[in-house]
Amino acid sequence: MTKKSTFSYKGSTALITGAAGGLGEVFAEQLAERGSNLVLVGRSADKLQVLAQRLEQQNKITATVLTADLASSAEVEQLVSNLKTKRIDVDLLINNAGFGVFQRFLETPLARQIEEIDVNVRAVVSLTHALAPAMVARNKGGVINLSSSAGFQPLAGAGVYAAAKSFVLLFSEALAQELAPTGVHVLAVCPGPVATGFFADKKPDLGRHQMDDPKAIVEEVLRAFDRGKRVLVPGKLSVRLKTFLPRLFPRALVVQFGESVVRKLNRV
Ligand SMILES: NC(=O)c1ccc[n+]([C@@H]2O[C@H](COP(=O)([O-])OP(=O)(O)OC[C@H]3O[C@@H](n4cnc5c(N)ncnc54)[C@H](OP(=O)(O)O)[C@@H]3O)[C@@H](O)[C@H]2O)c1
C-alpha cells in the first residue's frame, strides 16, 4: 500500500543519527545535495563537525551537530531538549545509528546486549515519539528507520541484533499504518551487507563485491521514500530473495540456515 510522498527536501530539516560514518554520512551528503538542512547526531563530535563544515561549504544549507550517546536514555532526552532550546523543527527523522553484536548470546556480556537494544530499539522509539507529533501537527514529515535483512528471521549467533531489527521493522510498519491519514510517511529499510564500518570489528567471510555500495543504497532509500513505500529491501536481488525464503520454509530450517549465515559472516 503506497501513497506517493509530497515531501519537499529543499529548506526542510533532517535529523540523522549515526551520521559520522557509513550510511548516516551518505544520508547527510545526499540530503544536503537535495537542499535539506541537517542535524547530525552521534558520539564522534570531531567527525560530525568536519562533516557539517564540508556539507555547509558544498551546499547552501545549515548543519548542526548534536553529540549524543544513544545508548543513554538521559542523553536521548538531552538531545530532544537541545532541539527545543535551539528551536529546531525536524521534518525528516532518520533513525540510522545502530550496531550488531555477532557473538553467541551467553558469551556476550549482558551490558553489551542491553546497549544493543538501547541504541537499536529504545532510541528509535524515543526519538520517534518525541519528534513525530510536531510533524503530524504540521501535516508534513517523515521517519526512515534502519532495520535490516537480519530482521526477517531469528539469527543464532546474533540473536539480539536480529530481534532488535525485527522490532524496528514491525514497529515501523505499524506506525506507517497509524500515520497514513497524516502527511507523515514512515519507511523501514532492510539492507543486506553494505560496505560500511559496520563489519569493522567482525571478520566477514564476504568480498566487497558481495556487499552493497552505501551510496547506491541511500539513493534507493530516498527514491523509495519519495514513492511512499513502507518497507524497502534495497540492494542485491540475492538479499531480497533471502528475506523472502524464510516465509516459505519451516521455522526450524530457517533458524538453522540463519545460524550458518552468521557463522559465515563472523566465523563464530
Ligand atoms: N552495513 C550493513 O551491512 C548494514 C546492514 C543492515 C542494516 N544496517 C543498519 O544500518 C545502520 C547504519 O549502519 P552502518 O552500516 O552505517 O554502520 P556504521 O558504519 O558502523 O555506522 C553506525 C553509526 O551508528 C552510530 N552509533 C553507534 N552506536 C551509537 C551510539 N551509542 N550512540 C550514537 N550513535 C551510535 C555510529 O556513530 P558514532 O560512533 O559517532 O556514535 C556510526 O555513525 C545501522 O542501524 C545498522 O544496523 C547496516
- Mean pLDDT comes to 94
Shape: globular
Q: Bound compounds, please?
A: NADP nicotinamide-adenine-dinucleotide phosphate
Largest sheet: 7 strands, parallel
Share of helical residues: 40-55%
Backbone CA Rg: 18 Å
Structural class: alpha/beta
Tally the helices.
Answer: 8
- Share of β-strand residues: 5-15%
Would you count the extended β strands for me? 7
Order of helices and strands: EHEHEHEHEHEHEHH
Q: Would you state the CATH class?
A: Alpha Beta
CATH architecture: 3-Layer(aba) Sandwich
**At the third CATH level, what is the topology name?**
Rossmann fold
- Uncertain parts: none
Number of individual domains: 1
Span between termini: 39 Å
CATH homology-level superfamily? NAD(P)-binding Rossmann-like Domain
Key traits:
47% helix, alpha/beta, seven-stranded parallel sheet
Write the layout of secondary structure elements.
Layout: E1 13-17, H1 22-33, E2 37-42, H2 45-58, E3 63-67, H3 73-85, E4 92-95, H4 110-138, E5 141-146, H5 159-178, E6 184-189, H6 214-227, E7 231-232, H7 237-244, H8 251-266
Parallel strand pairs: 1-2, 1-4, 2-3, 4-5, 5-6, 6-7
Helix pairs in contact: 1-2, 1-6, 3-4, 4-5
The protein binds NADP nicotinamide-adenine-dinucleotide phosphate.
